[in-house]
Design a protein that fits this description.
The complex is a heterotrimer of chains A (216), B (243) and C (56).
Chain A: H1 2-13, H2 16-36, H3 41-63, H4 69-73, H5 76-82, H6 87-115, H7 124-148, H8 154-181, H9 185-215
Helix pairs in contact in A: 1-6, 2-3, 2-6, 3-6, 3-7, 3-8, 6-7, 6-9, 7-8, 7-9, 8-9
Chain B: H1 2-9, H2 12-44, H3 58-85, H4 88-120, H5 128-148, H6 153-167, H7 170-180, E1 190-191, E2 195-196, H8 200-232, H9 237-242
Antiparallel strand pairs in B: 1-2
Chain C: H1 9-14, H2 19-55
Classes of the chains: A mainly alpha (216), B mainly alpha (243), C mainly alpha (56).
């Protein structure tokens, strides 16, 4: 399992555009929003969170768009299938490496921007925690969408996986509200962590079945 | 005996032949129950104390919402059958049920929006029940889009089944959303465990409307699946002799 | 249970101002369901005809 992690980490680390690109786009979106609207800081603080959440959603999709397609196109996936290696472990390794290299930095960027828009410094770790857990859920869901639409373009993946991601966004919104109002953060974050663990355990199985369908 | 029954019924040919026998009765009964339920509800049920006469949309909206979820539930059972036992008919039924699901979910959303105007003063609210029903609508469209993207029909069937099974998590969210979150949408009027909170003079036409909508959608589903099965199996001898 | 809830037919149509909402919903739904049945039936008949012609 460690070998899979190191291999996927090595591959992703050397593909600069694959991990830096989504992060830069997220920063650009979060900068562009306040520039595009003539609004007081007080009003901006009220709904800037939704911009962070939506940009997290979009960039999570972007980050996992080619998580399997490159390996599919160059025949690596087929090779793995023929060698009867465990797709589950490889899928899990890919998703976790993407979360580590892209998802956690995204959560950090989101936390910093939330601090720049009204959240107190003491609350920033809480924002970081719930954003990190959300990226774990979203990366799993969008990886599933990418697996479904592996060579059919990204739009199909979005249409297939976005309805599954929206309940996660609702849960994230609830988590953000608990930070804003200072109540119930522990309960919601534990719920989110539970959902994230279940999704992380089950989704690689489903993705493996999907990839095998493409290869058969 | 059960196994031979399942094998016999799960062949597309048997399905088309058997459903052709009872389709006219299902359709007739469905239309009859809908007409009875709707006329009773529109003309003879008393006016609601709070909502006035706009509540009469309930005899259409609630059956449509129930069917929207039930159709997806049916699709998920078929998806499991296809994935586990490789029943071809199950995949055909998923593909046929999806457009019916789109139609009825649209009717549920449309009727709910129109009902919201006199009741809530707005045709849309981003509350749990409405949003999750909208997500269900998009899921139906996603399933149809996914299947039509692949030229290899067997691969498309399998991927569609996987997506349906994964998406079934949305159904309990819709069902329970009005209980889990305090929302604008009213809680369920009918519950299996707690009975009905609605007056019998409204409950009876509602129940008949639900039955009528279910039978009508089953009839439409049979018609669509017949068309789809004949199209998919058009090179087989039984189709040539059937038409 | 089966008393007509309105004083006259005009009342039944207007429903104290809510008639436009109620009747819009029912008519659109009826139209959608009816049109769906007709479209599928027509597609089925066209398919059967094409298949019959192809086999002949």
């Amino acid at each position: 399992m460690i070998n899979f992690f190191s291999l996927e980490a090595f591959k992703l680390r050397h593909k600069l555009r694959a991990w830096l690109g989504p992060l830069l786009i997220m920063i650009l979106v979060l900068i562009a929003f306040p520039l595009s609207i003539d609004i007081s800081q007080y009003d901006l603080n009220k709904f800037y969170f939704s911009v962070i959440v939506v940009s997290l959603l979009m960039i999570s999709f972007l980050a996992t768009e080619s998580i399997f397609s490159e390996d599919y196109e160059d025949g690596s996936l087929e090779q793995i299938h023929l060698e009867e290696k465990d797709f589950y472990k490889i899928t899990l390794a890919k998703i976790l490496v993407h979360v580590f290299f892209i998802g956690i930095p995204m959560a950090l960027i989101g936390s910093i921007f939330s601090f720049a828009n009204g959240v107190s410094f003491a609350e920033v770790p809480k924002i970081f925690v719930i954003l990190s857990i959300s990226t774990l859920i979203l990366f799993n869901v969008f990886a599933f969408g990418s697996a479904l639409s592996i060579n059919k373009g990204s739009m199909l993946g979005v249409v297939a996986s976005l309805p599954l991601a929206l309940p996660a966004i609702v849960l994230l919104g609830r988590g953000v509200r608990t930070v804003q109002y200072g109540q119930g953060f522990f309960e919601v974050s534990v719920l989110m962590a539970g959902v994230a663990l279940i999704v992380t355990a089950l989704m690689p199985i489903i993705i493996s079945a999907t990839l095998k369908t493409h290869l058969e | 005996m059960l196994t031979s029954f399942i094998h016999r019924f799960s062949s597309p040919k048997s399905f088309v032949e058997v459903t052709a026998l009872f389709f006219p009765y299902v359709m007739f009964l469905g239309f009859l129950c809908l007409a009875l339920g709707w006329i009773w509800g529109l003309a003879f049920a008393p006016e609601d104390a709070i909502q006035g006469n706009s509540y009469r949309i309930i005899f259409l909206h609630v059956p449509a919402s129930i069917m929207a979820q039930l159709i997806y539930f049916f699709m998920s059972i078929c998806a499991l059958m296809h994935l586990v036992w490789r029943v071809k008919l199950a995949a055909y039924l998923i593909k046929s049920a999806a457009p019916v699901g789109v139609l009825i979910t649209f009717i549920a959303l449309f009727s709910g929006s129109i009902w919201g105007i006199p009741t809530w003063g707005t045709w849309w609210q981003w509350d749990a029940r409405i949003t999750s029903t909208l997500i269900l609508f998009i899921m139906y469209l996603g399933i149809i889009t996914l299947h039509s993207s692949f030229s290899n029909a067997e691969k498309a069937d399998r991927l569609m089944s996987i997506l349906v099974v994964v998406g079934v998590v949305n159904i309990p969210i819709i069902k329970k959303s009005v209980d889990w979150w305090s929302t604008l949408h009213q809680p369920a009027s009918i519950s299996i465990s707690d009975g009905a909170s609605i007056d019998p003079s409204m409950l009876y036409p509602l129940t008949i409307s639900i039955l009528g909508m279910a039978l009508t959608m089953i009839a439409l589903g049979i018609l669509v699946s017949k068309f789809y099965i004949l199209t998919r199996e058009k090179n087989k001898k039984w189709v040539q002799s059937y038409v | 249970m089966f008393n007509f809830s309105f004083t006259n037919f005009y009342d039944f149509l207007t429903m104290d101002g809510h008639g436009v909402y109620v009747w819009t919903v029912y008519l659109v739904t009826f139209a959608l369901i009816a049109v769906s049945f007709l479209i599928v039936r027509r597609k089925l008949n066209v398919f059967k005809r094409k298949l019959k012609n192809a086999s002949e």
